[in-house]
Protein: Chloride channel-like protein CLC-g
Organism: Linum tenue
Amino acid sequence: MFQYLFMKWSLCFLVGLIVSLIGFFNNLAVENIAGLKFEFGWKIVGRSKMAFFVFSASNMILTLFACLITAFIAPAAAGSGIPEVKAYLNGVDAPGILSLRTLFVKVVGSITAVSASLVVGKAGPMVHTGACVASLLSQGGSKKYGLTWKWLRFFKNDRDRRDLVTCGSAAGIAAAFRAPVGGVLFALEEMASWWRSALLWRSFFATAVVAIVLRALIDVCLSGKCGLFGKGGLIMFDVYSANITYHLADIPSVLLLGVMGGILGSFYNFLLEKVLRVYNYINEKGTVYKILLACLISLFTSCLLFGVPWLGTCQPCPPDALEACPTIGRSGNYKKFQCSSGHYNDLASLIFNTNDDAIRNLFSRNTDSEFHASSVLVFFLICCVLSILSYGIVAPVGLFVPVIVTGASYGRFVGMLFGSRPHSSLNHGLYAVLGAASFLGGSMRMTVSLCVILLELTNNLLLLPLIMLVLLISKTVADAFNGNIYDLIMKAKGLPYLEAHAEPYMRQLTVADVLSGPLWTFHGVEKVGTIIHVLRITRHNGFPIVDERSEDDSRVLSGLILRAHLIVLLKRKDAFMSTPVERGGGGAEFSAADFAKRGSGNGDTIDDLQISAEEMEMYVDLRPFTNASPYTVVETMSLAKALVLFRQLGLRHLLVIPKISNVSSLFSCLI
Amino acid sequence: MFQYLFMKWSLCFLVGLIVSLIGFFNNLAVENIAGLKFEFGWKIVGRSKMAFFVFSASNMILTLFACLITAFIAPAAAGSGIPEVKAYLNGVDAPGILSLRTLFVKVVGSITAVSASLVVGKAGPMVHTGACVASLLSQGGSKKYGLTWKWLRFFKNDRDRRDLVTCGSAAGIAAAFRAPVGGVLFALEEMASWWRSALLWRSFFATAVVAIVLRALIDVCLSGKCGLFGKGGLIMFDVYSANITYHLADIPSVLLLGVMGGILGSFYNFLLEKVLRVYNYINEKGTVYKILLACLISLFTSCLLFGVPWLGTCQPCPPDALEACPTIGRSGNYKKFQCSSGHYNDLASLIFNTNDDAIRNLFSRNTDSEFHASSVLVFFLICCVLSILSYGIVAPVGLFVPVIVTGASYGRFVGMLFGSRPHSSLNHGLYAVLGAASFLGGSMRMTVSLCVILLELTNNLLLLPLIMLVLLISKTVADAFNGNIYDLIMKAKGLPYLEAHAEPYMRQLTVADVLSGPLWTFHGVEKVGTIIHVLRITRHNGFPIVDERSEDDSRVLSGLILRAHLIVLLKRKDAFMSTPVERGGGGAEFSAADFAKRGSGNGDTIDDLQISAEEMEMYVDLRPFTNASPYTVVETMSLAKALVLFRQLGLRHLLVIPKISNVSSLFSCLI
């Protein structure tokens, strides 16, 4: 018991450690690759035509690389990964989702896709990465590649694995945003279908490890040992360390921002879903089409990013600018882009930056005059279009950062419209923060976790009441139109999901109404041939064990046996007996490790078994391997209540038993 | 349905609004009463003997008032209230805990007790206040005092009331500490036994309202319209707005702080429990003893607070002090207390302040030379002793702030011991914050919620990794010794509590092993006399309805009926029938409102019924009033699994049914 607990905490520690290292490496690689690209494109190749060529070619190569490894090595790594992990935690273990291959492609693909200037994020992939790391650790490594640890055998079951994957997804958000509390809340609010208070503590531990390791690594990098990894390396827009003030007079404009953010967010979801459906259609045609689509998107992105800044205005550099102005190349907020010296192009300053830097620019205060309203509007439209078009490509791309950058530009634009009113004490940067909140609320529909993540990003708790207000409003408004973006993606991907609340029609039905037959049951001592036959003709994963009592011919439920355990029994064969009366399993000895849960999709199937005709006639005593206490409901139980039971307890099987019994009944109330 | 949702949100809004108003009033009153006391004691009465007399007499009067109203009006309001609310949310509805009387005494008593210079907090009482407000609103006011609202009838059931009480306790913490996110997490982690994601959102809404209302009220007060209510009125120790730095070299001392904090915190719990047991013994002797005990504690507190500063050292005022130095009277951090002019007494500066101000002093940075180590140690001991002695008195007193102030002085003392080491980048104020965290972790054993509350109090997210680390360590260390302080108090108060996890021995038992008889069941159509008889001789709250089928003499479970619903049926009498065959309840019509849940302890009991001998012979059809889908388990179900079912679904009754059935079984697996 003590060993188990110690191991569990060690695993959480390892998850935190590995996820933070991956997260840091991720950022380091993106900053360096994207940095080199910009340096090369601008500094070395001076002329704009050549610059465009270098820019779009390098983007194309990076995109192609991300798509190729995804399509050929691990197709499950495409997309954000949050819907898949959410479905896993709801009980749907789709094959390959949490494998080592997926992990590898997710990390490398996410780095290259983000470096390719696509408007995609790396937070979603980090969540999937965290889940993969946790799952691999709890399985004791990947058996396929010979990386296994014997001492992790305790955790080869669904429950411990699910708990650890929850911790892993919390650690993923913590590593992506440096938001440890936000990560825990994200896992609680959005990811987990099943939660208990011990999990709160354990995921908190994992994210604490992430926070501390990241802090130590950044301390190392601040001394300049990380190449082009600069201050902006890890997202943290602590641009509001000064006190901000706001008053009741600001509330109406904030309310309006929230309402519009909700409408726009739900519209964003709507468009994204439509585009995803079109892409699904294209992607089904074959791998070549997938790759072509991605290349097309990359080219379109390059053209748009390079062409649109011509619409921007050249503005004189502010005399009191804290940074160099104008600049060319990667760093610096005032981009020269075709302007005369002493001037900068405001649209280029937003576009020719990583998304992180663009968000930092939009959030920054004391820069109210830096951007024109028209430039911010154009940037908003570009982000909107590109992020919707880019999400569906076959590469590990996230949605979090694109939604934040789109929302921030929306908010800043609204702030500029309101900015001229008297008595407004909110600056444009603050509007950008609130805009990001409203867009996130309208699209992702989380509340507490988004609020805490935004607070941890901006590092200013005084913003709390306003962010809360905006989130509540935008979520409420958006809920009137459609669903959470991850749920929409899950539906588009065909992943089933069991909601926590019952639909109204379920109250009218009993469980007996929804039973489908035929039901296959086994006897406590069953013939091998019968088991093989039933396993072949059905796809059920659990079978009730029902015995007849010889005295009065009544039937008794002994328990439930799982398909996976039956296959282990049939494979080992040493529990086979020649006659049904024999007891004790023919002297066979099994340990719990024999029934350990394998990695997803790695278990044996019925087709792997080799059973001779003679063995078919033998018997096996199933009773020692039966779950003798399955959860049951009476057939007249309302379907809604059965759903609550199923979901709240995280069940996979629920036995329905008949209502009538003729024994001297032993009904009783506990407590 | 829409009306129900709208009402539910409106109620949350009202809870937030009322709780924030009460919280603000609370602070306003404390600041003004305590302020007046100090002004009068020092400024007007110059000499120290007279000052002591005025000080101790005013403390005595305030304490006496708090104790008298508690003892005579609402004894349930004594103590922090958090254990009671926690027990309520676990399913134990002790009488009077959430009544209007309790609310009144809680608010007024808490104000006077805190003003009486006792080392007690007002956060716990705020949680209880929030729960009372929520409960009263969900009941539609107090029937006893004629304050009822008809349109709140939807919420007169256990489930909605429990949800709203959870929101109320979140709002309470939010109002006490201005920590909206911390409040939600506190309700989730510490209070609620039963949680669903909709609740997260709703409690978040309530705390958002609290945050916004408090902010608006403080804006009003900043213009000086609130008497002596100054900057320090609402706890918010935002003393770390500047960037702080810390490095890996600081980790060992932080670890040590956490370990010692855990040991001290659990020792604090141990002492508090022992003292509570002694007090329980004294309090049982009668009201006079209760009052005498409280007066004694008040006198002891006054003597100690007034006597100990003589141990403090007189120090010269720092030439660069930002405040007046030395000062007499209430305000100011440098107290003169018997020192010559130009000097201040460091111990008096800590003691002659409200707890909030003392915490602010201890947390403040750039004051490393303000206090002597010996003074801080003495202050730590005083706080420890006084807070342990004060908690058990018959008045509404909390534990949160005393634990914080004790922990802060402990942390500052440790910081002073470590401070001389080279390479330490942590100042004494930061040590005080971490000390408070370690003491809270060691005593209250929360993690995420305490972390967020401390962050919201100090308003600096950079402290997050260190606070997380300290909390995890101190909780882990303290868990090795004893339990959470609220659980200990609950046990001392005799409140039952159903833990979420099963004890190991439960795995060896089946539910059949723990059934106690005799079980009383009713028929679908039952004789009134039988019902009355059973209700009189038992104290069961639920009864299974079991019918015999005429065809084959088998017994069928039809459902479960509640005692409260039976009493309503028997009281109304119009469902009575003269013969058992009649169907449809004799034309009686009941609406859902008839069965609405009353306020705790206000329902009718069996003794209130007047049934004539003739009516005793009549029949009543119970079937329309039965819960036809009660949750059931088979008798061979493991006790541990049944406990999980009971607790996770928040059940009050669980039916145990026999295993054997002779019907052609309709077993099946859902999904």
